[in-house]
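Input chain follows. Return structure tokens only.
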Amino acid sequence: MDVYFIWLLLYEDSDYITVSPRKTEILFGKADHINDVKYRSNIINVGVDMKTNPVDRDPFFKMIYYLLSETMEPAEKIRKLDEECGFQINKSCIERMKNMEYISDYIWNEGQKHGIILGEQRGELRGIMLGEQKAAKTIKEKDQQISIAVKALLLSGQTLDEIANLLGISVDEANEILEKHN
């Protein structure tokens, strides 16, 4: 029994169907039984031209076009599927389609919420990082200014105690700043 993966490729230049049988290859380890495997995987690519009106197209491709059209209203889709493709949709199908739509919307909304949370977290972390960088730059600039002031006041004959008192810092802080910027 073969396994088939069906890929719908929308917005192709034409309608087509291809099948790509996959050969099993051993990438790691030893698997002598691999030739006895009953299942083979196949990829079926269904290319659908969603750009062109499906007037004279195969009913299968019309059906896909109508089901997946982003420009048609649901009522128009149902009418076209019935009239042109012979695909009648009853109330049960409509309810199932609504449920699928709700599930799809729910998944989309939850994904969007998760993305927003991640974005906010990344933005917050980036903001913190930028704030820390700016603070470090500001402290460095302030230390340089204090160093220049301390040096100038020392040259004018004032003591380190007087300078520290004048600048509102401790003598130890004044010494550390002088050492950093000498």
